[in-house]
Every structure is written in structure tokens, then in C-alpha cells.
Amino acid sequence: MSISLEARIESAVCPGCACLCDDIDVTLVDGQVYQAANICLWGASKVLGHKRFHPHKPRRRLEQPQIRRRGRWEAVSLAAALERTAEILIQARRPVIYGLTNTGCGAQAAALEVARLARARLEPADLAWKAPYYQSLQKYGVFWATLEVIRDEADTLVFWGANPLHSCPRHVVRYSIFARGRFTERGYEERRLAAVDIHRTELADLAELFLLIEPGQELSLLQELLATITEAGVAVSKNARRLAAMLQEAHYGVIFFGRGVSYGPTAALLDGLAALTARLNERTPFVLFPLSTDFNAVGLYHLLLRELGSPLAPDFGADGEIIFHAEPLSWTEVDALLVIGADPFWFLSADQIQDLHARRVPVMALSPVANRTTGHAEVVLPVAVAGVETPALAYRMDGLPLFLPALLPGSRPADQELLQQLAAALGGVSRRAACD
Amino acid sequence: MRLAIVGGCVFDPASGWDGQERDIYLENGRVVDYLPAVDQVINARGLAVTPAALEIRSPVAGFGQNFLRLWGGMPSPAELGQAYALLGYTHVHEPYLTLQTANYVHQELAALPIVDTSASLAINLRDVDLWLQDPQKLAEVGEAWAYLLEATRALNLHVVEPFVRFRQEFYRFRTLTEAKVMDRLFALLDHRRLPLTLTATPALLALDQPVPPDVHLSSLGAALTDDALLERTLQRLAAGLSADMGLLPPAPRPGLPSRPVQVDLGWFQPFDLLPEVDTRVAQRALRLAFLGKEFRLAFSVASLLPLPLSRFPQVFAWLGHADSRRRDWGHMQAEGTYSFSDWLRATRLLPAKYLGLTDRGHLRPGARGDVALYDLPAPDNWVESCQRCRLLCKAGELVVHNYEVVQPQVAKATHYRRTQAVPNKLVAEICQNRSLRPENLQVHAQPHLHWRQVA
């Protein structure tokens, strides 16, 4: 047996979800992760490279760039794969760059440059529920707090269409339900917890109040809550009365909402939640907090706001001006798709996939592992796992950036590097076109 | 690289030059007495040659500022950097960096092109309230703050809430009044000399305690809630207090949200990114700017949202031109006016002194070659020429030429204070209550972050 060299990396930052837990202690043996302490299943799937819900099944890594020709995969050089990607983007009339929530800030900035040069639309993977959230802030103002302040101060938590145990498992122990903070020293015992969902989730066993509602009932519940808080003595359902009482008794409250809000009338729901939070905030601090899942979703919105002044999906297709979209992409309009840090074919319907195939929409994917999107792609570019095999900067779900150094050596290039090369190739074409 | 700026009228309050025709020589990015031969000559005839400006208080990189872009109130970092350069600035100081948000602030500062940057570490006194109550422990508090100052790559300390209060009834017994806190802070400075800034509040201005000369009072404007406080502040300025104006607009800026935009950073009150503008308070702030002109009162605005960089020429015009003042403020009573040299003193010399950057804000030999050239101002109207900078040199490198940025990629760095303090028990206690481990709270070297130490 070869010599095992042990190395220990303490306080590594986990790219498993947007919690970015920074207490991961990793032991390396022979350049491989032998042990990772404090890590959840999601983080372990990234660091150890197994399937998220099947810890004993390793994920298939993509080994080399491939291009599909006449239905068959062909291994090609990196340069050839990049050239083909640039060619497709240039020829497309409605190219879309999709995803980016599961990659580092450097790659996001490079993708923004690619979108600009390819006159493409850049679509964050979770735009469906983040865009309405930012629009609600524009209307109702902002009261924001970091997770640390929430842990220290919040005595009332509501999870609306969110299940942290699945979307960001350690959130509940580090920042919310069980966490012990400066003024919440007894953790769970000192907090009141409510949850609203259309499915019964694990939170039902933890919450003082779990409101299982039918799809479509969200808005009426919100209206009842607002009415109860605004005027005393309004006749509302028992559930609304109990939840309103809990909210009104809070000294510091947080409404966490998750992807569940996107299954109904998202814009109206977020508007209602923001209105409710603003009303509660007149009396006591209340935060409306999106429970981001992907490890750097917040970094992408931060970049869009900082560089373009809007968190909505920028579309560089129009001459001279950027159009910002709050509505998620209509897949029937796409004629070329570059996917980075996401797997949209996981949730696309069979009809949508069929339509993309029928229209022969070329899909290009930058991914460390084989997934449904790479299975449908015309060009596949294997990349290193951001934050594990290559360093990355990522923003925690409350907007604080953390630097994730590389834990393991990797043979594949960083997605940031490939996107920069792609931008250079597109820039060269743009310059030639300008000269002609 | 040797550079000569010849034939210009040099204005440098630190050297006592008020428009004398002189040549300025730069070698290796620094001002030197004389050079017999140079590589490049800039003909500055018909131009005013001044030290480059330093922005003493520019909340552009603080946590939460990005939210303001939702209303189009804040330009992108690239636009901000260029706008500062075109006004003649080469340094920008962010006043709100906390232990939690240090990494955030440094990422934002790094995104600002052209200008050098620095930040103040905003101390939460609630983290050390029990230590402050014990006079025996003040030395340890000073040592802990000195350590955190270097660990977060900040330039000075900033106390935003000069008191200790808690929302929770249970903690009421730990309250510390402004007077008590000042006693402790000033005693602490006797143990450990640390550059300290206090955000001005009405309660702080009303105190009887004398403020040590090396303590700076930040953003006076918003604290001037009555005329008695204005008088009192003037007395303090006359006694040697260092402060900055914190000017406010005469009316709220149209198009900004009417709803609050607040971020809870763990202080007693949430940090208000969009404070309301009271016209009478704003008038007092402007009056103080004139009345305190002779004292150590540096130029600053309270917030870049109501008074963005694009309005700086207008703000300069309030200082230098009675007509502009009358137009924007009506018949407000404001005594005196700023001369070109007064303005240079308030935007160059005093900010450099406050930031402890001894080689900035003047053009004496040894100073860094940060030189701003403007069209030569008319004796009675300097405001016209200071609206845009004709040429700007940063460390001897030409950044702005003929009113245009020609070198946006010029080298830049974030300045921080080197204290060589070691972590003590209090540092461990402060870090223990954080949601990140201490090693991840520290600001680490990254390829795009460039540092420069200040002793």
C-alpha cells in the first residue's frame, strides 16, 4: 500500500448550500477527503462527490470535453469545444445563459461578460421567486439582518413555503430554530416557530403552529393575516388568528420563504408577504428573508445589482440597451442555451424538452458531473467543482461573502477560466465584425 | 518615471502657496524638490495645480448599500471610481466596516477602480460593555481593538453608537450612558493610542466632557438638531476638535423610496441607509460649515444618496458662491464664503490628517505624486473650475487627461493600520459570539485585493 500523507484543513467553507458553513474540518489522505467533520449530506455530496440523497453512490464525473455529432459523442480538445460553443452563441438569435447560482463569483462575472458579448439573456436559476422578492422590496422598503443578528435576536420564526431541513440542512442549528444566540441563549426553548406549507414537512413536528394549506389558499391566508394585524376584531379563520397573534407577540421576527412560493401566484404572494412584514415592522423588527438554496445564488444577484443596477434577468439582445426581465424565461423562445452551475433539464417538463429537441436548440453545459442537462447537451465542458477543487468567492444567504479555498487538487479547469476564454473568443469575433 | 508639471499656479494650503507660479517635480511617484532632467513635461500654464482630494467619509461599500441600487440611487463601482477621479479625488474612505462585514466591505472597495481606499472598523460597544465597566480592563480592550483593527484591515476605529443600550429588559442593568462611555473611551486612549472616530449625535454634542484632540467627530450635520448644539459644536471646534461637516441637502432627493431602507448590524438601532432629511437640520449643517471654516472641519456629506457625486459641484458651489446658496436654500442666513484655498484645505489637508496619511493632501517634497489640475479659477468664482478636473496624476501616473479618464486600470490599494497587537482573551470572547469562526472573520489575501500598511 502506498504511503498515506495526512493533512488536516480546519474551518473550511462548505459549498453545499447557501449557509456556507465555515466549520468544516477536513482530513485528507493521499489527496482525497478521508473525513469531513460537521458536514451535512448536501455538503458531503459536494466534497465527497456522491449523489445528494444516496451517500454510497458516487456521481459520475465528466472526464473530457465532448461534442455531439449526428447523435454520437465525440471527445474533442478543450479549444475545439470552446470554439464550437462560441460559434453556436454567435449564430444564435435568442441565446440564453442559464443557471450560475451554483458557482463562484468569478465565474458569474465572466458569464455576465459572455452574455454581454453574445448579446444573450442571463437567467439566474431561481429567478422565478427571487425577482418578485426584489420587486416587493422596491415597493415596501427594506429591513434586512444578517444571519448572526437573526440568531442572536429573533424569537419568532415563520417558514413559508420553505423546508430548511431539505434546502439548507444546517440552517436550523446554526442560525434559526435550534441556534443559541446572544439574546436567545436557550435556543429552541426561547423561540416560537410557525410554518405554512402545502405539504406536511418535518417542520410540523417542531413548530408550535403548522398551517397545512391547499394550493391557492396562500393569498387568502395572507389577506386574513393583514386584516387581523391592521384592524382588531375582524372575523378570520382560526389558523389566521393564531398565526397573527404569534406574529404580533414577537419581539423580533423573521419570515423565511423558500422555493415553495413559486408554486402559486408568486408575485402576489411575495407582495403580500412584504406588505405583512412592513406592517409588522412598524411595531417591532421583522425581516423577510429568502431561503436561498444554491451556494452562491445571492452572489449572482449581488453582482447584477452592483454592475447593472437591477437584480432582474438582463437581456443584452436589444441594440444599445439592456432589458430586464422579472418573468422567468419562456423556453419556447430560446434558440441556444449555455448552462453553468445548474441542471434545468431536471425540472423541465417532457413537453418543454420535446420542444427544445424538435427545434434543435443546441445546449452547451459546463458541469463537473454528468446530469440530465449534460445528457441533452451538444457541447459538454467538464469543469472543476467550485469551492472544492478550485477556489471560489461566494455570498452566504444573508449577503456576506466568504472565500472558499481549494480543498483538493483537480485536473479539470475552473468554469471561470473557461468562461473567460469564451469571452475572449467572442470578443475577438465582435471586434472582427466591427472592422468588417 | 520623472515628470515635471511646469508653469502652473500652485495652491497648497499646507505649504502656504496660494496661486504662486511654480514647477512641481515628480520622481518614482513622489514629489521631489527639483529634477534637472525629466521624461515628461506637463504644461500647466493657465491651470491651478493642487494636491488630489481625499474623501473622508464615503459610504459606498458598506453592507446594505447595494440595496440602494434597487431605486437607481447608487452608480456602479466603475462609475463611482471614475466620477471620483474626474472630481480630482484619489482616495475614498468607507466609514462602516464591522467585524462581520469586513470581507464584504473589502470586496466592494476592491471593485472601485482608480481611487485608493480605506475603511473604519465600526465597533459595537455591546460586545465589550462589561469590560468597559471595569477601569482595570481598559488596557485589554485597547489591545483587543488594536488587534481587530489590523485583522479586519481597517484604518481607524469608529464608534457609531457612543452608548450601550439593549432592547431586552433583562439587560437593562448593563446600560452605559454617553457620558460614561466617553469617560471610558478617553481613558482607554491613554492606555493605547488608537485613531478613533465618533459618529456625532445630539447627546454626544451636548456633553460637557472635552474631547481629546486626536478623536474625530464624524458627520456633524445630522446631529445639529437645535441651535444650542450648533453653538456648542462651534465652541468645541474652536477648542481644537477635529470633525467633518456631514452636509445634507435642502430637500429630499426626488425618486427615492418613501419606505425605510434599514439593515440590522447588531447595534441598538438598525442602520438607516436612507435617513430622513430635516431642512432646519440641513441648514444648520451648512451654517456650521461657514462658521467653522477656520477650524479643523473637513468637507463631507452625510450620505451619497441624497447628495450623490454628481451633485458635488453643486455642494461645492454652496460653499463658494452666495448665488448658488440663495438659489438652492432660499434666504438662509449663512455667514462668509469659502475661498479656493479654504476648499482645498477642507477637501485635501484636513482629510489626509484625519486619515493619518501623512504623504497626502499636500505637495511638499516626499508627498505622493497625487496632483489634481483644474482650469485656473477666477478670483471671485472658483466654483466653476472645480466642477471637473482637467488632469489628475496618481502616484505620478496620469489618470485623467483633458477631463477624461485615460488610465482606469491604474494601480490601487486599500490602506490599513498596522498595530502589531496580539489577540487576547477579549478577542476570543468577541469572536466566540460570531456566526463565523475567527479565521473566516479575518480578511484574507486574495488576488484582487491589494493592501498598503500605514504605521
Helical stretch count of chain A? 14
**N-to-C terminal Cα separation of chain A, in Å?**
63 Å
- Please state the overall shape of chain B, judged from the principal axes of the Cα atoms: globular
Major sheet characteristics of chain A: 7 strands, mixed
Shape, per Cα inertia axes of chain A: globular
List keywords for this structure.
heterodimer; A: 436 residues; alpha/beta; Rossmann fold; Dimethylsulfoxide Reductase, domain 2; 7-stranded mixed beta sheet; 5-stranded parallel beta sheet; 14 helices; 22 strands; 35% helix; B: 455 residues; Urease, subunit C, domain 1; TIM Barrel; 2 domains; 10-stranded parallel beta sheet; 9-stranded mixed beta sheet
Task: Give a quick summary of the entry.
The complex is a heterodimer of chains A (436) and B (455). Chain A is an alpha/beta fold.
Q: What does this molecule look like?
A:
The complex is a heterodimer of chains A (436) and B (455). By secondary structure, chain A is an alpha/beta fold. Chain A folds into 3 domains: 53 residues, no CATH class; 201 residues, 3-Layer(aba) Sandwich (Rossmann fold); 162 residues, Dimethylsulfoxide Reductase, domain 2, CATH 3.40.228. Chain A has a 7-stranded mixed beta sheet with strand order 7-6-20-19-18-8-9. In chain A, strands 13-12-11-14-15 form a 5-stranded parallel beta sheet, with helices on one face. Chain A has a 3-stranded antiparallel beta sheet with strand order 1-2-3, with no helix packed on it. In chain A, strand 2 and strand 3 form a beta hairpin. In chain A, helix 2 crosses helix 14, helix 8 crosses helix 9 and helix 8 packs parallel to helix 10. The radius of gyration of chain A is 23 Å and the shape is globular. Chain A starts with 5 loop residues before the first strand and ends with a helix. The mean pLDDT of chain A is 94. By secondary structure, chain B is α/β, with parallel strands linked by helices. Chain B folds into 2 domains: 94 residues, Roll (Urease, subunit C, domain 1), CATH 2.30.40.10; 336 residues, TIM Barrel (Alpha-Beta Barrel), CATH 3.20.20. Chain B has 13 helices and 21 strands. In chain B, strands 6, 7, 8, 9, 10, 11, 12, 15, 20 and 21 form a 10-stranded parallel beta sheet that branches. In chain B, strands 1, 2, 3, 4, 5, 16, 17, 18 and 19 form a 9-stranded mixed beta sheet that branches. In chain B, strands 13-14 form a two-stranded antiparallel ribbon. In chain B, helix 4 packs across helix 5, helix 7 runs parallel beside helix 8 and helix 9 crosses helix 10. Chain B is globular. The model of chain B has no long low-confidence stretch (mean pLDDT 94).
